[in-house]
Design goal:
globular; mainly beta; 7-stranded mixed beta sheet
Length: 117
């Protein structure tokens, strides 16, 4: 059974930082692409950042230079370091796992990030 458990969300002032974590189980983590998406109220879910099994990364233009995605294959965990947070970063952040063999996509339950101005 695949489980993705996010943590690290919360309330922060504009300009602050948060680090999200997503612990995965039930998958061969080192073979999966891992990503973070977010969904703000009234908006569609959007890609924030993605890392391939070999560590290549992709970012949304809106977060480039502020957010960093990383993965620790030994801990089956992917991280999202978020710096210089803005009110428009407020959203529920979801962890995603991509199994290229299917492809199959798995989602976590989401963690709320709120940035106050």
């Amino acid at each position: 059974q695949v489980q993705l458990v996010e943590s690290g969300g919360g309330l922060v002032q504009a300009g602050g930082s948060l680090r999200l974590s997503c612990a995965a189980s039930g998958i061969i983590f080192s073979r999966h692409g891992m990503g973070w998406h977010r969904q703000a109220p009234g908006k569609q879910r959007e890609l924030v950042a993605f890392t391939t099994p070999d560590g290549r990364t992709t970012y949304a233009d809106s977060v480039k230079g502020r957010f960093t995605i990383s993965r620790d294959n030994a801990k089956n965990t992917v991280y999202l370091q978020m710096n210089s947070l803005k009110p428009e970063d407020t959203a529920v952040y979801y962890c995603k796992s991509l199994d290229y063999a299917g492809p199959y996509t798995y989602w976590g339950q989401g963690t709320q990030v709120t940035v106050s101005s």
